[in-house]
Design brief:
This protein has 5 helices and 3 strands. It is an alpha+beta fold and 105 residues long. It has 2 domains: 69 residues, Winged helix-like DNA-binding domain superfamily/Winged helix DNA-binding domain (Arc Repressor Mutant, subunit A); 29 residues.
Length: 105
């Protein structure tokens, strides 16, 4: 699942759509209006990739399609990848600090 999320996040248009959905859920039409350089078909294609990667969920309201940001996959990536790497960086920084203090005394 993480590979699908990374692939989805790799595209700037999809990141823009996620930024728009971060503020509030939006209909597909509203997302199309917010991306005037793209045709509706292209926006739909990007949304489908976001849905397949579980970053967006869709609620049907009659003929409307309301898109919601699903932050869980992003949180999982942060927990698995970002937090793990920052912990290692913090340990390395602490070692460097300790070594520099030992050398200066």
């Amino acid at each position: 699942m993480h590979e699908e999320v990374w692939r989805a996040l790799a595209d700037p248009t999809r990141r823009h759509l996620l930024d728009l959905l971060k503020a509030e859920p939006r209909s597909t039409g509203e997302l199309c209006e917010a991306c005037p350089k793209l045709d509706r078909c292209t926006v739909m294609k990007h949304l489908e990739i976001l849905v397949q990667s579980h970053l967006v969920t869709v609620e049907r309201r009659g003929r409307s399609r309301i898109n919601h940001l699903n932050p869980l996959p992003l949180h999982q990536i942060v927990e698995k990848w970002v937090s793990g790497h920052t912990a290692q960086l913090a340990l390395t920084a602490q070692k460097i600090k300790t070594l520099s203090e030992e050398t200066s005394t």
